[in-house]
UniProtKB/TrEMBL annotation:
Keywords: Coiled coil, Cytoplasm, DNA damage, DNA recombination, DNA repair, DNA-binding, Endonuclease, Hydrolase, Magnesium, Metal-binding, Nuclease. It is an enzyme of class 3 (hydrolase). Pfam families: RuvC (PF02075). This is Crossover junction endodeoxyribonuclease RuvC. Its main location: cytoplasm. PANTHER family: CROSSOVER JUNCTION ENDODEOXYRIBONUCLEASE RUVC. It comes from Skermania pinensis.
């Protein structure tokens, strides 16, 4: 499975591409960071991020885009910019029929390091080790984008199994309720005779 990982941000937006193999095997294919100057208008900054993401999607043809979910940040302005950057990337993917999955920072950290509250240095170290890279990806946005893609590769099979199980349970419940209605109807009809 080819996964594009996105660590959204207005100033720096990390983009990565990994190929997930069998088991926990993942290979890094590309990584970059899109930078936009703070003195540009917001719309222009978002356009630059969208253009870069669209280029990546059209060039690399990912099966899915994994984006960091804005979970909670103390700085509302930063959170808004992060959400807007993630939104334009999600929109670009949706327009291409590419699936989008959101992962919280703690989910990504837990998947990559085993600790949902790991710091950036720990994430970078584990990403470097997992992918067998010679040097650590920099800046941290690049490592975070790779971590998002790795997280999705490892979590996607579990998420699919859970969705299948939930759908099967819902179908079973639907059949049970239909059968229950039939039994009640039959009893009611038998009682009126």
């Amino acid at each position: 499975m080819r996964v594009m990982g996105v660590d959204p941000g207005l100033t720096r937006c990390g983009l990565s591409l990994v190929e997930g193999g069998t088991g926990r095997s993942v290979v890094a294919l590309d990584v970059d960071v899109v930078r936009t100057p703070a003195d540009l208008e917001l719309a222009e900054r978002l356009l630059r991020i969208a253009d870069a993401a669209e280029y990546w999607m059209d060039t690399h043809k990912p099966a899915v885009v994994a984006i960091e979910r804005v979970f909670a940040q103390h700085n509302v302005r930063t959170a808004m910019g992060t959400a807007q950057a993630g939104g334009v990337v999600a929109l670009a993917a949706a327009r291409r029929g590419i699936g989008v999955s959101f992962h919280t920072p703690s989910q990504v950290k837990a998947a990559v390091t085993g600790n949902g509250s790991a710091d950036k240095a720990q994430v970078t170290t584990m990403v470097t080790r997992i992918l067998g890279l010679q040097t650590k990806p920099t800046p941290a946005d690049a490592a975070d984008a790779l971590a998002l893609a790795i997280c999705h590769c490892w979590r996607a099979p579990m998420l699919e199994r859970m969705a299948y199980a939930e759908a099967a349970a819902a179908e079973q419940r639907k059949r049970y309720e239909a059968r229950l209605r039939q039994v009640r109807k039959a009893r009611k009809e038998a009682g009126t005779r």
